[in-house]
Amino acid sequence: MDKKLRGNFFRSGFSFGSWITFTGTASAEIMAKAGFNWLAIDMEHSPISIERAQELIQVIELSGTIPLVRLSSNDPVQIKRVMDAGAYGVIVPNVRTAEDVSSAIRAAKYPPAGSRGVGLARAQGYGASFEDYRSKINKDGIVIVQIENKDAVEDIENILSVQGLNGVIIGPYDLSGSYGVTGQLTHPRVKAAEKTVLAAAKKAKIPCGTHIVFPDREELGRRIKLGYNLIAFGVDMIFVLKESKEAVDAMRSIKNKFR
């Protein structure tokens, strides 16, 4: 773990990253070199395996960006495996209680701070630097949880009080589903829930994030103005989709001028 790189996670009170769903390393390298503070490898909604996750972690880290992994579930075994592969931290989906958060933090840290099992893999220099890694990861390992269920909103103050939590990210789509209005991101129940989480995070001085899936600059400005300071902006597939569609639209428009 590069201590200098870890310090870039929340520089000047703000942190921004993006999402990786493609299994290929080229797009991850391109995005890492673009200058994001961090990139989250998505193991929940993609075909990325643990082997491919390690390759993506290597590429992201060597390109000067913090590699995180969004887990498929709050699974201590998966947390151990991605951390052993070299992830600087994890994003834990769909936590609902403070105990869920405590469980994830314990799984990411070695005893006595946590319960993570000891193994020698890439993160530990394949056995050459375990002691150095152990001290750094227990201090600097990143654990972020996603608030995407009404149960978590109701328990938000307890969730934010858990020692060792580095931030929360609201998952608007699943959050809307938990209120019975799936996909209605502007529904009053969803907006009220987001407001509750953001206000509680500000009070607790815990970074509060959101994922702007479709990279809209106006929405980004609005979210920053509201006080969000941990923002995931876009997804690799959406960047490709957006640019591809704009290119096709431009070609069709220009072609029609010469008909």
Describe this entry's structure for a reader.
The protein is α/β, with parallel strands linked by helices and 259 residues long. The protein has a single domain, classed as Phosphoenolpyruvate-binding domains (TIM Barrel, Alpha-Beta Barrel). The chain has helices spanning 3-6, 25-34, 50-62, 76-84, 98-108, 130-140, 150-154, 156-160, 172-178, 188-204, 217-226, 236-257, and strands at 15-20, 38-42, 66-70, 89-92, 142-147, 167-170, 208-212, 230-235. Strands 1-2-3-4-5-6-7-8 form an 8-stranded parallel β-barrel, surrounded by 7 helices.
Furnish the topology, listing elements before pairings.
Layout: H1 3-6, E1 15-20, H2 25-34, E2 38-42, H3 50-62, E3 66-70, H4 76-84, E4 89-92, H5 98-108, H6 130-140, E5 142-147, H7 150-154, H8 156-160, E6 167-170, H9 172-178, H10 188-204, E7 208-212, H11 217-226, E8 230-235, H12 236-257
Helix pairs in contact: 2-3, 4-5
